[in-house]
Specification:
Layout (H helix, E strand, L loop, with lengths): L2 H32 L4 H38 L4 H25 L1 H8 L7 H13 L2 H17 L4 H24 L3 H26 L13 H17 L1 H13 L5 H37 L2 H28 L1 H9 L6 H32 L5 H25 L3 H20 L11 H28 L9 H22 L5 H11 L1
């Protein structure tokens, strides 16, 4: 995969991820407006986090790290990739079905382990009931992740990237229907989740068949390939699931303060927009690209792919991080403050957003650096680094919570993200020039930092000027649009002028990637 093909894939994944995140914002706005921070939303967040946690372990982490490189090599070689994919599908389905059954049976224990602060109040029973409705979502999403891996490995990114949009569409329609026709909106929301999972699985399954990879359900088979995949996948799944584990640690800390889980969830969704669009898109496209370059012995191509991925990531992430740190309250108040969400809720969410923003570049660079290890089927070192970061997160979260309360969860997530990123960078020291960013990356990095700093100053000045408008219902949307527009124009103008992100590069990539 040439660097320009990498850009084309990134743009495809980035576009659909952006669509998903925008619709995700609509989803979160509806949840906050129709349900609002409090016991019901706390219970929903805790319940929905359970299938997402296990999805990281059983699906996305394992299959992005182990299945994709193995499938890519078989797809490029003379072996039968469909047979391997079928064996992986059947083994994964069997494991996740057992997991789902156990989780449904022992849901009270799971809730106690992940939200201990709920014990003794109404949130505990609510979370148990909600968890049993949404947990089957993991079965559909785990299998969908396998088909997404097939599509990504064959260079067909659109369907896999578009599938998550369905979840937001289903949920938005369900909540609007609940508000329109009556009944508890929360139950419309809950039942829409497993239905959306089934729709996502159907979409990527059909897309894989059209790509020429026919996966046949059947009995699980223990083969040498499956054994090798599991050896690679287990530490990779644990490493990729660290973010979810860290969120659970934060949930344990926040569960002692009513509403805090809802505040952290809302803040998490806001910083997940740039993280998803940039970090996840680059990571999804970069792994198969690196795997192919390494298989063919193309060290120069590997280094170019890594450098362009890092360059793209930081060029879009650093200004986003600055914006989240400089103007969090205008963003939060306009996006979330309505219905059941008050100005006090907005203030709490904004503090968490600013702290998460500080860690955003580290979160994204992890997505760039991890494929260097995964493409070599080296998942042990990323797991070790993730384990260290997990210990740091827990220590900071529980330690600081005694002093600053629930917000310690956000501080801990940011600190551990930087620790994990630096450990990954340190771990590439024995990979040679393939794992070194090239001269163009280093020349542009300081320019990206400078353009982001200028944008931050412009945002601060504009926030002071527009401040009164944010308190007016009719004008706050206009004020936010002007604020975002001023930030975007100032960043891209300065970035173009000083050579951080020349517009000619973007035009060339769009033209050749079309």
């Amino acid at each position: 995969m040439k660097p320009i093909r990498l850009m084309s894939g990134f743009l495809t994944v980035g576009f659909w991820t952006l669509m998903s995140r925008i619709l995700g914002f609509v989803r979160e706005v509806l949840i906050l407006a129709l349900i609002g921070p409090g016991p019901v939303m706390d219970a929903f967040v805790a319940a929905f986090r359970l299938p997402n946690l296990f999805r990281r372990f059983f699906a996305e982490g394992a299959f992005n790290a182990a299945f994709v490189p193995m499938f890519s090599k078989k797809y490029e070689g003379e072996e039968d990739p469909a047979k391997f994919a079928s064996d992986a599908f059947n083994g994964l389905a069997f494991a996740v079905l057992i997991l789902t059954g156990l989780a449904m049976l022992f849901m009270p224990a799971l809730v106690w382990a992940t939200a201990e602060g709920f014990v003794g109040d109404a949130r505990f029973d609510l979370t148990v009931g909600y968890g049993r409705i949404v947990f089957p979502y993991i079965l559909f999403m785990s299998l969908a992740a396998l088909f997404s891996g097939i599509l990504n490995a064959t260079g067909r990114f659109a369907a896999a990237a578009a599938a998550p949009v369905l979840l937001n569409i289903f949920v938005i329609i369900a909540m609007l229907a609940g508000a329109r026709f009556g009944g508890a909106v929360i139950y419309w929301l809950l039942w829409a989740i497993p239905l959306a999972g089934a729709a996502q699985l159907a979409l990527v399954w059909v897309a894989a068949m059209r790509a020429g990879v026919s996966v046949r359900p059947g009995r699980p088979r223990w083969t040498a390939d499956i054994k090798h995949m599991l050896v690679v996948a287990v530490p990779a799944a644990l490493a990729s699931g660290v973010l979810q584990v860290n969120l659970l640690v934060g949930q344990l800390v926040a569960s002692n303060t009513q509403g805090a889980i809802s505040w952290l969830y809302a803040a998490d969704r806001l910083y997940q927009l740039p993280l998803g669009v940039v970090g996840i898109a680059v990571g999804v496209v970069l792994l198969p690209s690196l795997s192919r370059h390494l298989k063919s012995g193309d060290d120069a191509g590997s280094r170019a792919a890594l450098s362009r991925a890092g360059e793209i990531s930081l060029a879009l992430t650093l200004p986003s991080a600055v914006a989240l740190m400089v103007v969090p309250l205008p963003l939060v108040s306009v996006l979330y403050e309505r219905g059941q969400t008050t100005s006090d809720d907005s203030a709490a969410i904004a503090v968490a957003v600013a702290i998460y923003g500080l860690g955003l570049p580290a979160f994204v660079m992890q997505k760039v650096l991890q494929p260097l290890f995964f493409a070599r089927e080296d998942t042990r070192r990323p797991f070790h680094y993730a384990a260290v970061a997990m210990v740091v997160n827990a220590s900071v979260a529980f330690g600081l919570s005694l002093v600053i309360g629930w917000i310690a969860a956000a501080v801990a997530a940011t600190v551990s993200a930087w620790v994990q990123m630096w450990l990954l960078l340190w771990g590439t020291r024995d990979m040679g020039q393939v794992a070194r960013f090239d001269d163009r990356f280093r020349r542009r990095l300081w320019r990206i930092v400078l353009a982001s700093a200028v944008m931050g100053a412009v945002l601060w000045a504009m926030m002071v000027v527009l401040g009164p408008m944010f308190g007016m219902d009719g004008l706050r949307y206009v004020a936010l649009a002007v604020l975002i527009g001023a930030g975007a124009v100032s960043y891209f103008a300065v970035a173009h002028l000083i050579g951080a992100l020349p517009l000619s590069d973007i035009r060339q990539a769009l033209r050749r990637g079309a």
